[in-house]
């Protein structure tokens, strides 16, 4: 655990010592600034976000800066990851011809999100940056802007609105209802859920790990040691589970982004 | 520790409301990633992947070409082999024919030589016989005349020389012998 989190509660607080369980909550996600530069508070999650940038760029620099026909180990791994997003997501959802243009965006999104998620279980970091809504929101915003601009670019002003509102003459009298629903669903709820899906998963995962970690520590007193063992097993289990969820959520985020782009490019939404 | 306990004391914000500063940092962080990947690193690897694909396909094409060439060479070789076999068979046939003809010729030649030798022998024998017959006729005539002269005197000799009686007699004998043969 990082120093901050370990110290987020009184280390001497244990069960049977007249001290209540310091349950994690929203305060778990609040960080005092590491540094304040000209009124700008720089916090640990921001640092982790920037390190994520370094990690992703650094890795792909090592892998692809001087690529060879016969790849080395790093290049091979990089190619596998690149191919996974390119073939496994973009080509599958958008198609090879239209999708090629959006491969760099989706590859960047996938690895950036994944590394930001991954901090959750990295010692000392131990905080998924994406559990702060601002980070998923920033990425969802990029996808949202891309989606809307692509829609109008492809279909024109009227066509774009028809595409967004799901206009279909065959619907007859219920068309206005559908259009209102689609308006909210596509323009307002969609970007929100896109960001929140990632945020909530990482938020909940982090909360669980912190909760079991704190409980393990808290229970280490007298008879409580028995339960502390069980709680510690849960920490291990949740950590392994998070490792899985982190990748899945990065995948889902990019999958949705691709399907939005595909929706903007297709004739019928 | 104090810092965080202080944070704890603050009223926690709604977790669904993004902090603007975090949003900005997030955007910057992502744009840097995207910039490097989209402008430099992914085009780099795409070039190499394309080259590799071409190299592999080129290799396949080369192998295909080599296979086709090998096929044609094999066909050519087979054709040549068949031709050579055919030629050999033809030569053998020819040789057999020539051999047969040669044998025939030699047989004929042998026959001819044999006939010649035989004919020559016959001619020789005939000539010898004729010579012998001529010599014999003279001797016989002379002996008979001598004998007759001795029997009737010596004067017959000149007369006999002029006379052709003996010759006629011997011719008759000869004719008889010829007829009997």
UniProtKB/TrEMBL annotation, chain A:
Membrane topology type: Multi-pass membrane protein
The subcellular location is: Cell membrane; Membrane
Record-level GO cellular component terms: plasma membrane; proton-transporting ATP synthase complex
Keyword Transmembrane helix in annotation: yes
Transmembrane regions listed in the UniProt entry: 46-64, 102-122, 129-150, 170-189, 198-219, 225-245
Q: Write out the entry's keywords from A to Z.
A: ATP synthesis, Cell membrane, CF(0), Hydrogen ion transport, Ion transport, Membrane, Transmembrane, Transmembrane helix, Transport
Q: What is any Pfam family matched here? A: ATP-synt_A
| Molecular functions (GO terms) | proton-transporting ATP synthase activity, rotational mechanism
Quote the CDD domains the UniProt record gives.
ATP-synt_Fo_a_6 (cd00310)
Indicate yes or no for the key word Cell membrane. Answer: yes
- Described function: Key component of the proton channel; it plays a direct role in the translocation of protons across the membrane.
User: HAMAP family under this entry?
Assistant: ATP_synth_a_bact
The family classification in the record reads: Belongs to the ATPase A chain family.
| Name the record gives this protein | ATP synthase subunit a
Automatic annotation (TrEMBL), chain B:
Q: What is its main location?
A: membrane
Q: Which GO terms describe its molecular function?
A: proton-transporting ATP synthase activity, rotational mechanism; proton-transporting ATPase activity, rotational mechanism
The UniProt keyword set, sorted, is: ATP synthesis, Cell membrane, CF(0), Coiled coil, Hydrogen ion transport, Ion transport, Membrane, Transmembrane, Transmembrane helix, Transport
Q: Which Gene3D superfamilies match?
A: F1F0 ATP synthase subunit B, membrane domain
Q: According to the lineage, what is the superkingdom?
A: Bacteria
Give the record's GO CC terms: plasma membrane; proton-transporting ATP synthase complex
Query: How is this protein situated with respect to the membrane?
Result: Single-pass membrane protein
Localization annotation: Cell membrane
For this entry, the protein name equals: ATP synthase subunit b
Q: Which organism is it from?
A: Streptomyces purpureus
Query: What gene is it encoded by?
Result: atpF
């Amino acid at each position: 655990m990082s120093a901050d989190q370990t110290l987020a509660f009184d280390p001497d607080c244990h069960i049977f010592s007249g001290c209540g369980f310091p349950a994690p909550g929203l305060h778990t996600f609040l960080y005092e600034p590491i540094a304040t530069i000209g009124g700008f508070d720089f916090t640990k999650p921001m640092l982790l976000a920037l390190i994520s940038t370094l990690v992703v760029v650094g890795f792909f620099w090592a892998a692809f800066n001087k690529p060879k026909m016969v790849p080395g180990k790093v290049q091979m791994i990089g190619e596998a990851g690149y191919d996974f997003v390119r073939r496994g997501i973009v080509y599958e959802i958008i198609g090879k011809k239209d999708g090629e243009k959006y491969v760099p965006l989706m590859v960047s999104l996938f690895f950036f999100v994944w590394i930001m998620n991954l901090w959750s279980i990295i010692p000392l970091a131990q905080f998924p940056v994406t559990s702060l809504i601002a980070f998923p929101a920033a990425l969802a915003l990029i996808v949202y802007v891309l989606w809307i601009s692509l829609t109008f670019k492809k279909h024109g002003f009227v066509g774009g609105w028809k595409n967004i509102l799901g206009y279909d003459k065959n619907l007859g009298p219920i068309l206005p209802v559908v259009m209102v629903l689609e308006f909210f669903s596509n323009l307002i709820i969609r970007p929100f859920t896109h960001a929140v899906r990632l945020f909530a998963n990482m938020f909940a995962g982090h909360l669980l790990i912190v909760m079991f970690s704190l409980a393990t520590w808290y229970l280490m007193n007298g008879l409580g040691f028995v339960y502390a063992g069980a709680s510690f097993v849960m920490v291990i289990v949740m950590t392994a589970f998070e490792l899985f969820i982190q990748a899945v959520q990065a995948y889902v985020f990019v999958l949705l982004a691709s399907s939005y782009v595909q929706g903007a490019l297709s004739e019928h939404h | 520790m104090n810092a965080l306990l202080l944070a704890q004391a603050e009223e926690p914000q709604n977790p669904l409301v993004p902090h603007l500063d975090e949003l900005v940092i997030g955007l910057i962080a992502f744009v840097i990633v995207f910039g490097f990947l989209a402008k430099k690193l992914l085009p780099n690897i795409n070039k190499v992947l394309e080259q590799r694909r071409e190299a592999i396909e080129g290799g396949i094409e080369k192998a295909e070409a080599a296979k086709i060439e090998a096929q044609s060479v094999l066909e050519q070789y087979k054709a040549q082999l068949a031709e050579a076999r055919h030629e050999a068979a033809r030569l053998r046939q020819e040789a057999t024919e020539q051999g047969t003809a040669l044998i025939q010729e030699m047989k004929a030649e042998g026959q001819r030589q044999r006939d010649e030798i035989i004919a020559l022998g016959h001619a020789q024998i005939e000539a010898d016989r004729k010579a012998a017959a001529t010599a014999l006729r003279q001797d016989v005539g002379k002996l008979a005349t001598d004998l007759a002269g001795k029997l009737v005197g010596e004067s017959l000799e000149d007369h006999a020389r002029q006379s052709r009686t003996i010759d006629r007699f011997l011719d008759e004998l000869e004719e008889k012998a010829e007829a009997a043969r």
